[in-house]
Design brief:
With about 120 residues, this protein is mainly alpha-helical. It is built from six helices and three strands, in the order αβααββααα. The protein has two domains: about 60 residues, Arc Repressor Mutant, subunit A, CATH 1.10.10.10; about 35 residues.
Amino acid sequence: MSISDAEALVMEVLWRDHPLGADEVLAALSAQTGWAEPTVKTLLNRLLNKGAIQARKEGRRYLYTPVLPREDWVGQQSVGMLERLFGGRVAPLVAHFSEQGRLSPADIAELKKLIAELDDER
């Protein structure tokens, strides 16, 4: 499922807390984005049409809940990025972040621990 960057911001709000009305989604995003209500409603409708969220009528408003699990979306995005930028290989990704000075000592320790756990499983 293809979700735009703007739609992903709406999804992040709904993944954190749901069900929410359009007004609550707007309140959560307005300071960050400056969006008006019509923009948020347009994004919610796009997500509804894609099947990423569902809506339930409650009184005079709709409450929105994610259908697409965040873990599934992150997995899709991760694999896509890895394929596009690094030929599907993880090592060049880590090397890139290392060369850019983006790996903290804590990141390096966590990577070493993960590799050790992977080695132990094999």
